[in-house]
Amino acid sequence: MPDTDWKDKLRCSFCHKKSTDVDKLVAGPGVHICDQCIGLCNEILEGENLASSTEPRLPAWETMTDEQILDHLPKIAAVQVQVDDNLRDWVAHLRGRDVSWERIGVSLGMTRQSAWERFKSET
């Protein structure tokens, strides 16, 4: 895959910006966070330290309109696809090391058969 193809697929799991639209994208286990969201997190944490208030959180569903929630759904779905793709890559790597479907299934809390059915086409 050309270098730019994978970069176009990676997005921040929080704001959903493409990796090509931010300066840095930090990878975690199946998720990514951009430098802009890290900056926002730092501002929230600094504010929390100064105000000593309760834990910061996203707007509650109760405070959002139906349209706001509907607008957010595709972002959540895109993050799920990104996490699923990452999981498939990890499983494929394990299968490349000849790790059994049994061990993979146990690690994922499913049967050997379920693991094989979910990931067989990827190996």
UniProtKB/TrEMBL annotation:
> Is the Zinc keyword given for this protein?
yes
Query: From the Swiss-Prot or TrEMBL record, what is one GO molecular function term?
Result: unfolded protein binding
Q: What is this protein called?
A: ClpX-type ZB domain-containing protein
Q: Which family does it belong to?
A: Belongs to the ClpX chaperone family.
Task: Print the keywords alphabetically.
Answer: Chaperone, Metal-binding, Zinc
The keyword Repressor is annotated on this UniProt entry: no
Q: Which SUPFAM superfamilies match?
A: Glucocorticoid receptor-like (DNA-binding domain)
Coiled-coil annotation reads none
Which residues take part in binding Zn(2+)?
Answer: 12, 15, 34, 37
| Taxonomy, superkingdom | Bacteria
Q: Ranges for the ClpX-type ZB domain?
A: 1-53
**Biological process GO terms, please?**
protein folding
